[in-house]
TrEMBL record:
InterPro entries, per database record: MBL_superfamily_lactonases, Metallo-B-lactamas, RibonucZ/Hydroxyglut_hydro
Organism, scientific name: Mucilaginibacter mallensis
Lineage: Bacteria, Pseudomonadati, Bacteroidota, Sphingobacteriia, Sphingobacteriales
Cited PANTHER family: QUORUM-QUENCHING LACTONASE YTNP-RELATED, QUORUM-QUENCHING LACTONASE YTNP-RELATED-RELATED
Protein's UniProt name: Metallo-beta-lactamase superfamily protein
Keywords in alphabetical order: Hydrolase, Metal-binding, Signal, Zinc
Domain of life the protein comes from: Bacteria
Length: 321
């Protein structure tokens, strides 16, 4: 069990006082925004898909900060301590295949979220067309959309997840050992991932090779035991999907040591984040981030001891930047 006592305590306290993605937090709304954004990446196309937005109390969600530091950094970005947090997934068109990175929430978090299928339809695609789904990790805002009730939502897709992640969350013995507040992640895996496994549509991978030409999983551990990034590369252009290693650009870019109550191993998550940010800033490739303001695509630029977020420049054609 890698959780430090400190992490377990902070998780327990946070879940008792506040569950940021609780149904009661959501206000009824439909997805009034278009919910998709196209961009070309070499011969590939990336289409950001919005699952919706939901209020998040970042001053309670973010931990390992000095007193008042989170509020101060949010204020500098004209953000309140409770912000509308995006839940993004990404459709990659690569070599004739339609590959989804994460699957949104489905009906798990109420009407403000659960719009991936709607966004996919608006972008011109149907769930039956999806060939593969690459999961960054097994949390409900990333795997919820795999199932609609007891039906597989993307019936023709093979689902990919790191072996470490699947082995951890699909093992009841690990649930028995986990702190009470973390047991629901195992329940989520049983509800959303086990049926995919039973249907013979789950593929697990080790790191070190491509899943498809130009598409490579990269170890990004800490937020969960087997959390994965995905690198896509075409014609010299690259984008790295960072999952949940970065939750708030306003707070965790200037101070990458600040962690999240949802981190399985907060220390490891901080180390992974610092390495990923340094590499992205040095190499200058694109990044896609699940909870940065939609479409969550941009660049990371070094700024003093930290970094700043440079969002993608809007392009009506999706072919210019
Ligand atoms: Zn997430």
């Amino acid at each position: 069990m890698k959780n430090s006592i400190k992490t377990m305590l902070s998780l327990a306290i946070a879940f008792v006082i506040y569950s940021p993605l609780a149904k009661a937090q959501n206000t009824p709304n439909s997805l009034n925004q278009p919910g998709y954004y196209h961009m070309a990446l070499g011969d590939f196309e990336v289409i950001a898909l919005s699952d919706g937005t939901t209020p998040q109390k970042l001053n309670e969600l973010l931990t390992d900060a000095k007193p008042g530091e989170v509020e101060h950094l949010l204020k500098q970005h004209y953000q309140a301590s409770t912000i509308e947090c995006s839940v993004n997934a990404y459709l990659v068109k690569a070599n004739g295949k339609l590959i989804l990175i994460d699957a949104g929430t489905s009906d798990v978090y109420g009407p403000a979220l659960g719009h991936i299928t709607e966004s996919l339809n608006k972008a011109g695609y149907k769930p039956e067309q999806i060939d593969a789904i690459l999961l960054t990790h097994i949390h409900m805002d990333h795997i919820g959309g795999l199932m609609n009730g007891d039906k597989i939502a993307f019936p023709n897709a093979t689902v990919y997840i790191s072996k470490i992640e699947a082995d951890y969350y699909l093992n009841p013995a690990n649930k028995a050992k986990a702190v009470e507040s973390a047991k629901r992640f195992f329940d989520g895996a049983e509800q959303k991932l086990r049926p995919i496994l039973i249907a013979g549509k789950l593929r697990t991978f080790d790191f070190g090779g491509e899943l498809f030409p130009g598409i490579t999983p990269v170890a990004g551990f800490g937020h969960t035991p087997g959390h994965s990034f995905y690198a896509i590369e075409s014609k010299g252009e690259k984008m790295l999907f960072l999952g949940d290693i970065l939750v708030s650009d306003a707070v965790q870019l200037p101070e990458p040591s600040i962690t999240s109550v949802y981190d399985y191993d907060a220390g490891q998550a901080a180390t992974t984040r610092k390495k990923a940010l340094a590499e992205a800033a040095t190499a200058g490739y694109w990044v896609g981030v699940s909870h940065i303001s939609f479409p969550g695509i941009g660049h990371i630029r070094a700024d003093g001891k930290g970094y700043i977020w440079v969002p993608i420049n809007y392009s009506a054609s999706g072919r210019g930047q």
